[in-house]
Amino acid sequence: MSEIDLPEDHPRYQSLLTRHRIEAGVEKGITSKQGLIAEGRGEAFDYLLGERTIPSADQAAQAAAAQLLLADQPVISVNGNVAALVAPEIVDLADAVGADIEINLFNRTPDRMAAIAAHLREHGADEVKGLTADGRIPGLSHERAKVDADGIGSADVVVVPLEDGDRAEALAAMGKTEIVIDLNPLSRSAESAAIPIIDNIIRAVPNMATHARKQQEMDREALDSIVDSFDAAAARNAGETAIRNGELS
Amino acid sequence: MSEIDLPEDHPRYQSLLTRHRIEAGVEKGITSKQGLIAEGRGEAFDYLLGERTIPSADQAAQAAAAQLLLADQPVISVNGNVAALVAPEIVDLADAVGADIEINLFNRTPDRMAAIAAHLREHGADEVKGLTADGRIPGLSHERAKVDADGIGSADVVVVPLEDGDRAEALAAMGKTEIVIDLNPLSRSAESAAIPIIDNIIRAVPNMATHARKQQEMDREALDSIVDSFDAAAARNAGETAIRNGELS
């Protein structure tokens, strides 16, 4: 039995599952008003993209998986919408690449932090970072700068799905290698990323985990070559072209 | 003093005013969860359109104003987002063309109906229809079919901004002349409209009122010729082209 009462091959399955999870996120205090508006923006871009993973986004997911496997200390940053939409998939990706999971909210409140941590644990996360908040990202105002010193604070590679532009730029300025998942190829987040994945997180996160599991037997040289052959600007351009030229239905 | 603490010529004024009004709508019980997601979808399309009224949308607004002035019984349909975003502008447009205002909700609850009616009255609406609900639109399920018999039920021209596709199609099937405001040029609502306005309602509604006031002295022949020269398919195509080719920023 699936999470919603529809077979997985139903043409609207993915979009109805997304809607179901976002609404459940509101009930649980995970998704904010801003999160609902952001979800709508994502829906529109995904509609224009044809609700599919374009080849350049699949290559980006492959490079991201390799980058995470190469990392000394990879961290996956999770906000309200990420937790609501892909909690089990994030836990699975963290497991596949050996990454920590850290909660980071644009609108940080103790209640939302606790609700999101509980939701991630329900979906199998052992350790959830972000609650200590003893580190700071330089150049951001107090609440938005908070990170765990032994999490994002000292990470070399961070996955920031659905991150706001200011934070994405500030993390890049700290020298972190950023993997961004964003449906808007010209957002500041996508532009500050070493690896921008222009795709819906519902598709991108499990796709990264699948690639990572295939790459687990590869040596560093092979992984390096996957990362080196990835071209961020070309991936953003391909995303923009797909949005411009996609079939509206 | 403006409604938000920013001068009207600030580059982000319109977008911040929109955000402010939508959030106030949530506080007042006017805007639903679905409404917030829909707002986000609109934001993305408007971003791709360049957050401006394109020439074909201005022509559509002009044709819509003329069509309303020619109507025997024009009605403007208002849902939660319309009330939250453009209540004073809807009241002004209704005044300029002599139209009734009727509340019609996709998710109809007595509380939301009452909150929206109160909000419209606060912004100067004398009479608000939609609460009697003694008429039905054929082909829709019970709650979504409800209209006032002496409102949308007997209207010849209806303005349905931000309408869902099923209702827009059912109203067109009843023989109503529909004016739709929708940022997605290929939505079923835009496709079922006699006059689709591919624009943000924040800009389109006051623009229609401005055109109507300029047209008030025209005779029926002049108004007819404005309506007749409007080409709905060309307007939808122009909207799609603008979204495809607009400058992303």
What would a concise description of this structure say?
The first copy, chain A, has helices spanning 13-27, 33-49, 55-70, 80-97, 110-122, 142-145, 165-173, 188-192, 201-215, 220-228, 232-245; strands at 74-78, 100-103, 135-136, 146-147, 157-161, 177-181, 195-197. With 249 residues, the first copy, chain A, is an alpha/beta fold. In chain A, the strands form 2 sheets. In chain A, strands 2-1-5-6-7 form a 5-stranded parallel beta sheet, with helices on both faces. A two-stranded antiparallel sheet of chain A has the order 3-4.
Placed side by side, the strands forming the largest sheet of chain A appear as 2-1-5-6-7
Q: Quickly count the helices of chain A.
A: 11
Beta strands of chain A, count: 7
In sequence order, what are the helices and strands of chain A, one letter per element? HHHEHEHEHEEHEHEHHH
Termini distance of chain A? Answer: 29 Å
- Provide the structure class of chain A: alpha/beta
Strand content of chain A: 5-15%
Oligomer: homodimer
Task: Specify which chain pair forms the largest interface.
Answer: A-B, 25 and 25 residues
Helix percent band of chain A: 40-55%
Biggest β-sheet of chain A: count, sense, barrel? 5 strands, parallel
pLDDT average of chain A, as an integer?
92
**Rg of chain A, alpha carbons:** 17 Å
The poorly predicted ranges of chain A are: none
Shape of chain A: globular
